[in-house]
Amino acid sequence: MTDRLVTEHPTTEHGRAAFWCGSYTADMSGEADGIGALLRRPDGTLEYAGVAVRADSPSFLARDPRDERIVYAVGEASGRLEAYLRGDGTALTPLGGQPTDGAGPCHVSVRPDATAALVSCYGDGSLRLHPLDVHGVPQPLAQVLAGDGSGPHPAQDGPHAHSTLMLEDGVVLSADLGADLVHVHSTDPGTGRLTRVDSLAFPGGTGPRHLRRHPSGFVYLVSEHSREVFVLEHRGTAVRVAFATPVTPDRVEDDTAAEITVTEDGRFVHVGLRGSNRLSTLAVVDNGEALVHVDDASCGGDWPRHHVVDGDLLHVANQLSSTVTTFRIDPGTGVPTQLGLAEPVPSPTHLLRA
Questions:
Q1: Nearest of 187, 87, 71 to residue 127 by alpha carbon
Q2: Fewer CB within 10 Å, N or C, the chain?
Q3: Comparing C-alpha atoms, which of 82, 75, 193, 196 is closest to residue 143?
């Protein structure tokens, strides 16, 4: 990473991390050294405080819902799931980890009772279940759900599991970007093991990527290749598409959609578009069942891999420009406006509120 730019920002409020930053390290052609720590300035922008813990390409992070001090990370190139414990400042201490035995783990989610972590493996399309002990430490692999299928897009050469979303009553949805499927699972309440009970098929070349729950109960799915948002309605394990819309009417051919978020009041949705480097704003209508495009804005960097809602703020991890940019969300329109300068952060891939 190049030398940090000198910027005139207010001093940070304190030395305690406000966000953890997943990243790519050298094994994924990145510039980072591990999980980064970000401090919050009084104006809401973030300041990079350095490496919280050295790790190999910890590209996606998750918190333990039972103990917010525990942070989980997947090593995308090393094929591992690791757990870390935060202290009072900006450091994380390793607790232990396990090999996933799957290719390219890119996402992790944790059961609400914190008894297991579910890892999505992009490389082979599998989901891998690791029990967690009473201290939050991952235990050896307990279950593998294999992926199958492919799609017409050049990047869809096989199944590519990309994310999971845990709903009430043990229902788990998983997005397969390579096979154009969203799988539906039930959970055995005794063992925690998953049973795949259905798969929702999407048109070839869709590329289901990430899932997000709306306060209404609807689930929003963003597709990487077709650059759409699908509204999913679910009743138990019965899932259907209730509505679909392009992320933006101003479509750029080489764009790929990345993260989708819902504002805390549930009124707006934001989607990052890599290539044209935009943030699209959509308004939520019809009690969550439909979306209407509002506007597009620059993401303030290159390759908006991930973004996160922080009250009335939006923080964007721009992977290729090695920056994190903060925006204020207009309460009337939902359109984000950049605050200050982009903060230099090496190869950011994920932001997790600490």
A1: 187
A2: N
A3: 193
- Strand-pairing partners, residue 144, are 128
Between CA 177 and CA 253 the distance in angstroms is 18
Contacts with 26 (C-beta within 8 Å, 6 or more apart), sequence order: none
Examine the pLDDT at 173 and tell me if it is beyond 60: yes
Residue 225, phi then psi, degrees to nearest 5: -90, -40
Does 95 score more than 90 pLDDT? yes
Contact 226, 207 (CB under 8 A): yes
Q: What is the pTM of this model?
A: 0.95
CA distances in angstroms from 267 to 112, 283, 284, 304, 327, listed in the order given: 25, 6, 5, 22, 17
pLDDT in tens, 116-129: 999 999 999 999 99
Looking at the chain, the number of H-run helices and the number of E-run strands are 0, 28
113 contacts 131 by C-beta, under 8 angstroms: no
